[in-house]
């Protein structure tokens, strides 16, 4: 980092919907890593009924410099004012929005008001979803930069209207965690059953967890002895349990529930031969890089996001199958019972993460992105968008006066879920999802590796 930007303050604004949120998984290493490089990072965790800052901090002890960002009324205007106050308190040179879309409105309002201390705004983009790119297109006049953890996300953000100089590739990083020799020996010489692990959110839309039951059925049909360990929680857990019931009763499936990030290695990776990842899309995924770092062979879909990234090579550092191809998934997993192939894939995976997805590489990329944001010419004053009235008080008195009265009276809006309390996005894509994924998939395929090892 250049000396003129030493000790520059940073404010990462992030959800704290523990255990549903996963953003602190990478902030856990990024905050101390940037501090070691001379930055002064603070993590602003939004608070509320659905956002438990205390529980989140207890689960992520590495986040030492933390402020709570509370919205006393629960309104849209209240969110924007709470974020503005956090920026006034911390006075960051750069504020990083981590799935807190109202950060854009807060920065725009500070700039339009001519505030003496207005931070640059960097959006952390860790998803490939149409609404997120709608947000980028709508807010491009206030975004000083977009930091993408995946090369497909970089390409899509550019198509959403953010100029190339404001786009930054900042991959996830995982610690070097090569397994102990006894673990490697256990994997190499282990008798059946083949130990398969799924780690992550249990939901169908992105993670495609309902592909696991037909994969298990196919493994059984082929006579492959296996044990599937599932670590995670999510909205489709009941349906997944129902579809795997016969395998569970036969002892072929174990359920660990939610496993804290610092316990996954000991409780899951140490006892796994194969990690299965059937996702539709990913911007990492961190779980794949973590498994590779721990010497676990990976069987993964050719998820949207794997092509332009250019990291995964079938038969070299993983085994790959097409999205939704459950028979192909079973073949990929079963092939890793071959000791020679599994050893080659494990070593290739470990080399990949050590060279490209290390914590040092990730922190260095973030340092470069933050420096570039500060070095760029300031953007023109942005358009401040009108906030719609939240209720009768706003319609009678105006939004700002209505908010003042709500605070004085202690009026608070109740929200039914975390995304209502602190929205991640306001985007509603002009493309239907099918069209978006078709386009994203075609773009990503330009960099895909379709070779296979039989």
Give the full name of the CATH homologous superfamily of the largest domain. Answer: Glycogen Phosphorylase B
Q: What does the radius of gyration come to?
A: 23 Å
Q: Based on the coordinates given, report the CATH architecture of the largest domain.
A: 3-Layer(aba) Sandwich
Q: Which percent band covers the strand fraction?
A: 5-15%
Put simply, the count of helices is 19
Given as residue ranges, the uncertain stretches (5+ residues, pLDDT < 50) are 449-454
Q: Give the C-level CATH assignment of the largest domain.
A: Alpha Beta
Task: Give the helix/strand class.
Answer: alpha/beta
Shape: globular
The tally of domains stands at: 2
Largest sheet: 7 strands, parallel
